[in-house]
Every structure is written in structure tokens, then in C-alpha cells.
Design goal:
By secondary structure, the chain is α+β, with helices and mostly antiparallel strands. The protein contains two helices and four strands. A four-stranded mixed β-sheet has the order 1-2-4-3, with helices on one face.
């Protein structure tokens, strides 16, 4: 199952905080798609995912100031 988290327009650290909350409700192996436009989150979300044991399966810059990261829940 895949869950979409739309955080475009939220200032940092809210995209990261929302991602942490969302992934807590998911099962191992499920993917969380995070859309965001906060530049700091391009570093903070992958760093959190690696530290927490999750996998980044996709990281794409959609436009000049919009990104999408897909996080696969690990442990």
C-alpha cells in the first residue's frame, strides 16, 4: 500500500514532522510519497529515513522548488 503526504507550502521542519507521523501508521514495506517545496527537507528527510532504517526508493525534483521523495518503511 502507498500513502501520499502532501506538504507543499509547509515550512521546515513540518514536512519532516508530518513524514515521521505518517510513517508510524504504516506497515513495514509500505511506501510513503512525500511532496514538498522546503529546500531543507531535501537533506533532512533522507537523513531521517537512513537513521530510522527506512529506504529512499525515489527522489525527484519536480520543478525549480518542488520535490518528491518516496520512503519505503523499514523497521
Amino acid at each position: 500500500m502507498t500513502k501520499l503526504l502532501e506538504t507543499t507550502g509547509m515550512v521546515c521542519p513540518f514536512p519532516l514532522m508530518e513524514a515521521k507521523n505518517a510513517i508510524e501508521t504504516m506497515e513495514i514495506g509500505e511506501e510513503l510519497i512525500i511532496n514538498f517545496d522546503c529546500t531543507q527537507a531535501t537533506e533532512s528527510i533522507p537523513r531521517w529515513a537512513a537513521t530510522a532504517g527506512h529506504e529512499i526508493t525515489e527522489f525527484e525534483q519536480l520543478s525549480e522548488a518542488n520535490w518528491q521523495i518516496i520512503v519505503k518503511k523499514g523497521k
